[in-house]
Amino acid sequence: MTSRETALAIPEPSPVWRGQFAITAGRIGLALALLAAWKLGADAVGPLYVADPIGVFQRILGDTLSGGLLRHVYVTLRLSATGFAIGCAFGVALPFLLRRMPRLTRAVEPYIMASVGVPKYALVPLFILWFGIDDAPKLWLVGLLVFYPIFIAVFAGIRNVDRGLISMARVVGASEAAISREVIWNSLLPFFFAALKIALPRAISAAIIGEFLVGNEGLGYMIEYSRQNFDTTGVFAGVVVAMALVLVINAALARVDRRLNAWRPVERHMEP
Amino acid sequence: MAAVPVLEVRGLSKRFAERRGRDPSSWVIKDLSFTVNDGEFLTIIGPSGSGKTTLLNMLAQIDTASGGELFFQSQAAPIDDPKSLKPGLSRKIGYVTQEDNLLPWRTTLQNVLFPLLVQRRLDSETRARAESLILAVGLAGFENHYPHELSGGMRKRASLIRTLVYDPPVILMDEPFGALDAETRAQLQDDLLRLWSLGRKTIVFVTHDIAEAIALGDRTLVLSRSPARIAGEHANTIPRPRDIRGIMTHPQFAVLYQRIRGQVQ
Amino acid sequence: MATPQHTESPPAAGQARIAASLRARGDQLLVMVLLFAIWQGLSLAFGTYWIGSPWGVAARLARGVASGEVLRHASYTLLEAAAGFFIGALPAIALPFALRRLPILTAILDPFMMGGYGAPKLALAPLFILWFGIGIESKIALVAITVFFIVYFSAQAGVRALDGRLVQMAQVMGANERDVARHIVLPGAVPYIFTGIRIAMPYSIGGAVIAELISANRGLGYLIQLAAMNFDTTGVFVALTATTCIVFLGNWSVSAVDRRLLRWRPRPDLDMQAGS
């Protein structure tokens, strides 16, 4: 209570509407300043290091119209989606399976946790060696990068389910499957969605980085190919599209998350 | 001993800032006036929510008033402008808040030394004073414990001596013993009176517990419900040193209790 | 499995728990042996071209360490990760402090910071290589920018979590602005900053390795790529093991510092690993 009244702690903008205007104006100003800095940088440093912004956008436009860019984006998205589906499926299914085998879980858990420490990107050359130079190694990469956060979240979510609710369900005669479906799944949904917000953008950036290393299509390939040909405009174009793609997906996820938040069940065991 | 006012409040009023789209909030404190004399132990009673904490916040200069005047040692203190507030009035007014507000990352001893640190008065003498205070309230052996390792009562004691260590002439206390069990409370009341009698500072002690107010104070003010104003003033001549655990048997206790009780309703 | 907080249990239950814990350890050992056996079996079945045997990898690793080669590349990668980490983390910590009393600036920056946080920084690797060459600078830059956004938000949360009452208390005692920043804001923010550091640490090593995979002439990522291109699976495993070790080393050091620095925190153990 008192910290609200005191004017001597963190100051708050007052009145709110005036602050909001200044903030929005400041943001627009900053964005324009950054764009201006980009242009100046391009003029100052030369086309090899910083591509001219107008040139970049022309390239994006041109590539989109010619269809080439769309093809690359499609390939990347298809890769991400497939890998995401695989990783997600395993990430959700495995904890449920492990739930029925507590002894196995205790035995295996430290190794799973240890494997989190292995940098998955570092495995790509191995995957290339094993699975060839098509989509397979990239799918493995995306799958793994999606698997871990989902698995950990679902695992933790299951672990944190209110045991009272489970007991209640057993008492009224629910089968194990029904318990899994009704009690556990609903309890862990918030954890799952939190992990989803991490895993989905990761799937896309993993696809892109995989394409840096292998393959001949996709956004990542386009960026890396441009780099090797010193085509700075191409590099910038690819990077801009990649960033925009991920940011749009993040924003969409945030919107979905906000709407789903409304019905979120009372979490008795959520950590603060 | 002539009563010398050290703190004087005239027509103090407080209402909280209006919020957009709501009716103007009501007065929490309206037209409150009283004096605090030098060296006295003044207790203030009021029902919960009667603005006791708000009053102390204004006295301590960490909050502004919506009206009225405040005088400290006959000098006016600026209390209407947030920018000119001087918390603690340059260390003349100490404030023991309801929550212990110990810094969680400092040990007991470090917490007690903290005011000396920021006042740049940390030397062997003040350090010795801190250590003797720790002993005096029975926290010996816990100097290097962190707050989360201490019980509620111990944290209260630490927070108490943290203010005592830098010896402000006036000390405000906001229900410092409220959350404690009866025995710990009695012990701390004892400790407080003992420490107070050694230095004869001025203490303004807020509580909702009538028995505590009588046991500790030279004078008790009763605040009315919102908007708070002085509902009554009761002189307390039970002789000192007082026996906390036995004070209820003193004849004057019952009289005071009835009178104050009637006003608090 | 979940270990909900037990109330005081009688000695029999305590003994049962010790027995269960021992059994779990035994199981874990069994699993490890099994994993190695499977590994060995696979390498025998498919040949060391496809999967180096555990023994072969261990021997090669030992040789690599003895000759100093592994350590040389490892230290190169570590250097990239560490330098990038500091270059990224220090401004990320300083910025929320500097902007503490300017909430409008923070609000203006927010969407840009969130954009930077959400954008895939690793996708910038080719751009940095274009700019800085295939040497150490491009890796450091990549790590720095990755770490910056992560630590920024943690530091920001730490500064925001400031308990106003502690500030008031300090002010009543005569603390000035600098005292408050130093004694109240900073220590309070440290746990949050540490969370950010803990999260960012594996990203710093991962970022260095990825950049090396794309283009480099030194470092563990380079070793991995080199071995892969020579179809030297054992070499790949050796380099991978070294990389993983470094990640564990990093995690361990962060935990060690965390334990020392944050002794004052009450510790409800929220770890997933509680119980194993």
Throw out a few tags for this protein.
heterotrimer; A: 272 residues; MetI-like fold; 11 helices; C: 276 residues; mainly alpha; 2 domains; flat
Notes on the structure:
The complex is a heterotrimer of chains A (about 270), B (about 260) and C (about 280). Chain A has a single domain, classed as MetI-like fold (Orthogonal Bundle), CATH 1.10.3720.10. Chain A is about 80% helix and about 0% strand. Chain A is built from eleven helices and no strands. The longest helix of chain A has about 40 residues, at about 175-215. Chain A is globular, with a radius of gyration of 24 Å. Chain B has helices at about 50-60, 110-120, 125-135, 150-165, 180-200, 210-215, 250-265; strands at about 5-15, 25-35, 40-45, 65-70, 75, 95, 170-175, 200-205, 220-225, 230-235. Chain C is mainly alpha-helical and about 280 residues long. Chains in contact: A-B, A-C, B-C. Chains A and C meet through helix 2, helix 5, helix 6, helix 7 and helix 9 of A and helix 1, helix 4, helix 5, helix 7 and helix 8 of C.
CA gyration radius of chain C, whole angstroms: 24 Å
Shape of chain C: flat
CATH superfamily of the largest domain in chain C: MetI-like
CATH topology of chain A: MetI-like fold
Q: Return the string of H and E elements of chain C.
A: HHHHHHHHHH
Low-confidence stretches of chain C: 1-6, 269-276
Low-pLDDT stretches of chain A are 1-15, 266-272
Q: Helical region count of chain A?
A: 11
- CATH fold descriptor of the largest domain in chain C: MetI-like fold
Helix content of chain A: over 70%
Overall residue-averaged pLDDT value of chain C: 87
Oligomer: heterotrimer
| Most extensive contact | A-C, 70 and 72 residues
Concise overview:
With 265 residues, chain B is an alpha/beta fold. Helix content of chain B is 32%, strand content 23%. By secondary structure, chain C is an all-alpha fold.
